[in-house]
Amino acid sequence: MNQEAGANSFSEHHQRHVRTTFQYIDKLLSEAEHTMADAGSLSPFRRHSDDTTPIQRKVTHDYILRIREAMRRVMEELNIPPPEPHSGAVWAAAINLMYCSISLNELTPKRMRAYGPLSPEAADRLDGIRAELDGLVAKLRT
Questions:
Q1: Cα–Cα distance measured from residue 138 to residue 142, given in angstroms and rounded to the nearest whole number
Q2: CA atoms within 13 A on the CB side of 76
Q3: What is the pLDDT of residue 142?
Q4: Domain extent listing, the chain
């Protein structure tokens, strides 16, 4: 980063603070958009009710694009380089799916004994649940 960014005289430390603040804002915007989209999902673990309309989601998405574009423009004006991506999206998704498999493989009758005994039928049912879900995750991983 430049020690001074043109006539604005933003030091490297000022630039870093602006970039870090914008990164945090971008994270919050992503979470807001994801929250609105996720509320309409069929997940049994939704954290929010689906009280948005398609128009609200579209307007939110459009404003988020405008905010991001404004932050990008400001960073260019201040000669603040954007951070480099840490990894590819495919790799990051694959890691999350790997953790899904690990979690499912820990969902065994042996590990459940700490919560009390399981009947043989319940143990078989748990093994079936684990195998079904792990098979679906494995197919997604390939």
A1: 7
A2: 6
A3: 87
A4: 1-84, 87-142
Q: How far apart are CA 104 and CA 102, in angstroms?
A: 5
The pTM of the full predicted model, rounded to 2 decimals, is: 0.76
Question: 85-115 burial by CB neighbour count: b if 16+ within 10 A, else e?
Answer: eeeeeeeeeeeeeeebeeebeeeebeeeeee
The answer, yes or no, to whether residue 50 has pLDDT greater than 50, is yes
What long-range pairs does 101-104 form, CB within 8 A, spacing at least 24? 101/134, 101/137, 101/138, 101/141, 104/130, 104/133, 104/134, 104/137
DSSP 24-51: HHHHHHHHHHHHHHHTTS--TT-SS---
φ and ψ at 76, to 5 degrees? -65, -45
